[in-house]
Amino acid sequence: MNTTSHADIPDFLMELEDAFNKAMISNDVEQISRCITDDWILVTPEAGPVPRSRILGVIASGLLTHATMTKVATHACVAGDVAWITGRGQNTGTFNGAPMAADEYITDIYRRVDGQWRCMLTHLTPAHTSQQSAA
Asked: Which residues constitute the domain of residue 111?
């Protein structure tokens, strides 16, 4: 197992994250689907675990859109056919027609499936500003 700091995040993980971000801001369900496993789960503070089908359905309907999405990776680990990467991310878009913006810590867990790395879990945690205290 290899745990890394931000200075030595494996290039392939950064490329996966970049592709995932581009897919999300494309708002194209087919493009997003190529980045995630069939059993992908998104864990949010608002809704808890949300299955792939629900997120893709909301994106396909236009209720959720992303205009920007960035992540600065700080930690990563590769262990055989599983890898994770954690960092701070920001995104903008709309939800139910209203503008939205998020600043959060994001962990993506990838699994190699048939030689291709796919995200199997995305976990979001809101980032606290200096005026907020952590629990």
From this structure: 2-126
CATH number of the domain to which 54 belongs: 3.10.450.50
- What is d(CA 7, CA 127) in angstroms, rounded to the nearest whole number? 21
Average pLDDT over the chain reads 91
pTM of the model: 0.88
Q: Give CA–CA dist 130/46, Å, rounded.
A: 22
Residue 7 inside a domain? The answer is: yes
Task: Name which of 8, 18, 7 is nearest 89 in CA terms.
Answer: 18
- pLDDT tens sequence across 96-124: 999 999 999 999 999 999 999 999 999 99
Q: Residue 131 domain-assigned? A: no
pLDDT digits (tens, 9 = 90+) for 15-48: 999 999 999 999 999 999 999 999 999 999 999 9
Distance between CA atoms of 16 and 82, rounded to whole angstroms? Answer: 13
Give the count of domains, the chain: 1
